[in-house]
What we know:
Blueprint: E1 10-17, H1 20-31, E2 36-40, E3 43-47, E4 56-61, H2 63-68, E5 73-77, H3 82-87, E6 95-96, E7 101-102, E8 109-114, E9 120-125
Parallel strand pairs: 1-4, 5-9
Antiparallel strand pairs: 1-5, 2-3, 3-4, 6-8, 7-8, 8-9
Amino acid sequence: MTSDKRKDVAVWFEIPAEDFGRAAGFYEKIFDTSLRRDDWNGRATGVFPYEMSDVGGCVLEDPEHSKSGAGTMVYLNCDGRLDDVAGRVEDAGGKLLTPRIDLPGEMGSLYHISDSEGNRVGLHALS
């Protein structure tokens, strides 16, 4: 089963920031926009403007991944098949970095994985 709502492969991104205020200000300045400031699990978040049916993303206070050079986390669309996709990660040469994380409300669920090349990738599903 696939979602009729989201057709894009990439559905979300997170840009890690050691200094959230500096990073959020940087993106607001270069794009001449305002990020919606929020708090996600105790970490400052600045969400880029987006339409609910489009790809969205944020700047996320995340000093650990900012300093490590892990870079931006891209979340891939796994609507209707999240657990199946996650269940094939290790057999394909990757690693599950987190157990399934169920987000509040209707935000869906996700896993963080490491792919066969060591890249951090998110798997996300609304359903």
